Amino acid sequence: MANVMDYIEWRGDLPLSVSPFNEVDCLAFCLISFIDLNGILPERAADGVITLEEAVARYLEAHPEDETPMGLIVPPQTRPLMRRMAECERFRHMRLRAFVDHIDENVQKQIAAMTVELDEERIFVVFRGTDDTLVGWKENFNMSFLTAIPAQLEAVAYLESVARDLPDRRILLGGHSKGGNLAIYAAIHASEDIKHRIVQVYSNDGPGYRREVVESPEYQGMHDRIINIIPQSSVVGRMLEHGERYTPVMSNATGLWQHDGFSWEVKGTTFVAAPSLSQDSEMIDKSLKKWTADMSDEQIEQFVDSMYRILTATNAKTLTELTRDRNWFWHLMSSSDPQSRKTVFSALSQLTGEAGRLWLERVLPALIKTKTAPKSADAGETVDQTTAAPTENATADAESTQPKAKRVPPKKDAIDRVLEHIIAEKHKKGKSKCATCPKRDGCPRLASKQQCK
Q1: Comparing C-alpha atoms, which of 85, 267, 73 is closest to residue 178?
Q2: Where, residue-wise, is CATH 3.40.50 in the chain?
Q3: 3.90.320, 2.60.40, 1.10.10, 3.40.50: which CATH number matches 4-285?
């Protein structure tokens, strides 16, 4: 099925005067807002403009494609999309201005935005979604316990600045993911004279807000001008509270990967409508809302802060740096402090239920720090004791019974298999016996971190 790239081929020769600005045009600009245009676009609206065609030419000259990484979560089609837009009649002469890209680890803020002059009467203010930085992701999760985050406050200031510098233009706003959240927040908190100039606000699979924001008069006053587009199995776009109706669309991806705007199916000038949201989306939404409802703001904040401490314990600044090592998960867990792990495991166990609790309490700690017992008299093998993690009741029962028979291992789930693969990879590296053993797959010694003699 066609997507936004195909749309550029179909509609690229038609100016806005023939085919008006639409939701697919909005998504295209939201996607290319992830391109780093620092030093190419002026930072203030009053400092001048540059056409999209010229901006792309300067960017490609300064940043050859084979030398500039885009980050772990930015789709590889982003740069080709920007090039195609700069080559077609519909977009090439549109003028860009006021590019900002601010990251502040001290206040935990990540925001980027630019303004597109659609014509002589309208501007489109585009906010970037979450980028590759860990602090950007931390700020996202802060929305679960804060009424306002720094990026939202700066989004309001950005809109006010651009609107003052271009006082006669009607305003459209939009963004993908966190960018959609920032677009709505800026619109509802703008001054009254600017609110009257706002025509439409687009949120493409953007997370929501705390209930008090959605129920506020400011939000309700902008409600009818908000378009909230989400894929049929949306996860991100269902987070927190939304006051506007959803417009579910078809995606050729599955699960969380539907968040990628390049996967959204396009027909003509619109996305292909989905009949309803999927059962997976509904189930995940209910689970997440129940999970957060059962926790206080303080507990959520502790969880988010602990998770961030774990992620930054390796001194990584981005997701790309964090996952560069194929054993990144092992290193992440082993380098984090015990209290942070305990807080995170406790919160996640509430979300994942009993099966998740058992895995988080028994399997993962055993992988982080393995303690070995003396060889048993009958088996003559080293046994990993940390995986047992007996409770007080279990200990009492064991003391009151006869010696235990050999325990039948529980059926392994997908997570267990992933963790065993991590262990196997660690042993394979530099361990010639395990690396060359024909019985390595499924080897019980390998799974329990032992070595063949």
Answers
A1: 73
A2: 4-285
A3: 3.40.50
